Amino acid sequence: MSLLIKNGTLLLPDGARRGNLLVVGDKIASVTATEPRAESAVDADGMVVMPGMIDPHVHFRQPGMDGEDWLSGSMSALAGGVTTVLDMPNTRPPTTSAPLLSEKIRLIEAQTAGGPCVNYGLHLGASRSNAKEVLAAGLGHPPSRRRRRAASLKLFMGSSTGELLIDDDRALKELLGTCRLTSVHAEDEAVIRASAGGRDHLSRRPKEAALSAIRKLLSWGTPGRVYVCHLTSGEEVDLASPFYREATPHHLFLTDDLMRTMGSFAKVNPPLRHESDRASLWEAVAGGRVDCIGSDHAPHTAASKGRDDVSSPSGVPGVETALPLMFNAFLKAGLPLQALAALTSWNAARIFGISGKGALAVGFDADITLLDPKEERKVSAEGLHYKCGWTPYEGMAIVGWPKHTFVLGEAAYSEGSFSKAKGRSVVYEV
């Protein structure tokens, strides 16, 4: 089948311009100013056409946990213009071996059998005893020709949801040394424990925990590559300059003041910080010092989040609102949308070695989203597709919601409706 997406503003690798995309099968066949013939067409006049977001940091909570599943997660992602997700391993049981990676793939296919499925990749969880599994998953350093099974090795330096904490510096250093790419939750557990008597979540996990963890990473001089997740301030971004750097929408749009109105619903790890930290993080994004936007989509049920701020779990849902929030902010600040496409698609494909994705270019997978820069809509939990049923952005007005999302050339989401379009497990470059 062939599809023409015509008359849109295309965010291409070499700049933004008005034009047409011809899709044949699951690939982009041409980018042209003319209108080639196709079996079907979508008029993108007035819309921005960009590569579907690659969200490198989601928690779809399967297997063994509540708050989300792969069908509801896929629907949320696709409605938010996300066409590929990389899922984290802190589940029950944690995904710490090649057989468990295979088991999770079978679960994904089973849960989405009756509906759409986003493209997906999986991170492998680090434990004290799974160095051999790092090699089995093709993540060893130096790189070998063994087929890669995982996007990265996820390493928790600070305690969070699940049971993957490694708080021994020697074990951490050894794992970092054996892996070609490690995604790190960079909070120093020693600092967290020393701050356990703090009056609130922010003081119990101070910024010094993040800075101390990054300083340790720098001192170890790891030979593989390091991707630092969810940085919360410009100070952290600048300290982590030798590494790949990720920011989340909740740290860019929300502050610790939200704890006063939402209570533990606003509890995340690392915590929401002060306005000065939020502003400095935006300066880092606008200045090109952040590589990726990851939603850190980490849903929990309202019942579990409604407990006190010590016993309630950490995390907020965000995969459906990440791209609209960022698009809205870039549009209103006059920042180049080309830079947004790099932050939300191209850079993640390059960093994690995802083959054939991340750009509107001939021969690339036809993972595409069309956003309307004129339509304003308020965020409402009722209008989102999360299984957990709530959002920290309730009532926020956003322009630039996705109108259409294509996965491998098929319309997976179109103006509020879903098809049974199926993404697939991503292919990693050697």
Supply the number of structural domains: 1
**N-C termini distance:** 30 Å
Unreliable parts = none
CATH superfamily assignment?
Metal-dependent hydrolases
Q: How does CATH name the architecture?
A: Alpha-Beta Barrel
Report the β-strand fraction as a percent range.
15-25%
Question: How large is the count of helical segments?
Answer: 14
Report the top-level CATH class: Alpha Beta
Question: Into which percent range does the helicity of residues fall?
Answer: 25-40%
Which structural class best describes the helix and strand composition?
A: alpha/beta
| Integer-rounded radius of gyration | 20 Å
CATH third-tier fold name: TIM Barrel
Largest sheet: 9 strands, mixed
Overall pLDDT: 96
Overall spatial form: globular
Number of separate strands: 20
